[in-house]
Amino acid sequence: MANTFSKYCTEYINNQETVLGMFNTYSLTKDLEKPLVSHRGKYISYDKITLGSTGMGIFNRDSGYTAMDFTSTRVEKELTQDAGNKLNIDLMDQEEAQIDGGTIRLFNNYIIKNAIPTVDTYRFTQMLGSSVKHTAHASISNSTIIGFLLADKGVLAQKRVKWAECIVYMAASEKVKLDEASLGKGYIGLGSWNGDLTAQVELLFGGAKLIEVPDDMLGSGVAWIIVHPLAFDAYNVYNEAVFFSQVPGFGGRRGEVDVGLYHDAWVQPNGEDGILVSLNEVASPVLPAAGDAFVTSKTIKITGQVFGAKIYFTNDGNTPDATKTEYDDTTGITMTATKTIKAIQILNGVSSEVATVTYTKA
């Protein structure tokens, strides 16, 4: 039920920043109450907080601005990513079953090798979505990586995202450069242990936590992803591992562990500002294959556009740049004669390699 502040307040709110501060505080409070998040089987439910309006409302000289309502709604989501499996155990195997804890070790080994990587890969694909902001950095090296990270910190600061609360998921190949840049300069250091491996490394020039992840988990060309925790939700539900000491057909000598894993991940409504994807290169746009010669005319569509990037093309053999024709996906490119199409995409001043295809008229 909405809480209408105008009935109780003694001082009217007269600027947007104050309202956003109240909203963020209220959202954080609800986040700290996340024990209210519950799950049953493949379903989770939680409270979603929304602001009644994105504007200040109508100003009245007697009463000030109209107060905006905060509304809490109970949301239920189905966790559809099922990585369940069944593990067979030989009960006569000393390593797996007769030694105390063998079954549990086998289950944990499965989770570590199969389940967790599956969850993480899916989680990062959600964060790479087209609605979040991308930045591009050319020629990341140990001499430039600190400057690029500070530039990304500035991008988030403009959107009022608190850098110290963010998590930087960095590709392992880029982490090597950061380590080299940090030698003797104190850019990074060991954080508190507290039993959490992911909390060991911290960026000292702002306080954001840094977690190293495999390159292929982030995706091709992604250097790091910076995430504010309140912008992103991820839930994992592990079904109870059930061990059957006797399975029909195995003469009581084999056991089976039933493993079920359900997970999902999504960006909170309006949470895109809390996620920044940084690329160490800008991929070339994708031109359709030339195919057979066309008779009268041919229209093509360019794909592979990075969110926030612009595509430029030429059809006269010249190399495209930002001064050439900008591609419009609503119309595509139509040709009535043999043409060589060259295309690039540019993101934050960083250009991709040129894609080239010649389309021939019969």
Task: Describe the SSE topology.
Blueprint: H1 16-32, E1 38-40, E2 43-51, E3 59-60, E4 64-65, E5 70-78, E6 81-82, E7 85-90, H2 94-98, H3 102-127, E8 133-136, H4 145-158, E9 167-171, H5 172-182, E10 188-190, E11 201-203, E12 209-213, H6 215-218, E13 222-227, E14 232-238, E15 242-244, E16 254-259, E17 261-267, E18 275-279, E19 298-300, E20 310-314, E21 325-326, E22 333-335, E23 339-347, E24 350-351, E25 355-359
Parallel strand pairs: 8-18, 9-12
Antiparallel strand pairs: 1-2, 2-5, 3-4, 6-17, 7-16, 9-13, 10-11, 13-18, 14-17, 15-16, 19-22, 20-21, 20-23, 23-24, 23-25
Describe the structure.
With 362 residues, the chain is α+β, with helices and mostly antiparallel strands. The protein has three domains: 5-78, no CATH class; 82-279, no CATH class; 298-359. The protein has six helices and 25 strands. The strands form eight sheets. It has a five-stranded mixed beta sheet. Strands 20, 21, 23, 24 and 25 form a five-stranded antiparallel beta sheet that branches. Strand 23 and strand 24 form a beta hairpin. The longest helix is centred in the N-terminal third of the chain and has 26 residues, at 102-127. It is globular, with a radius of gyration of 27 Å.
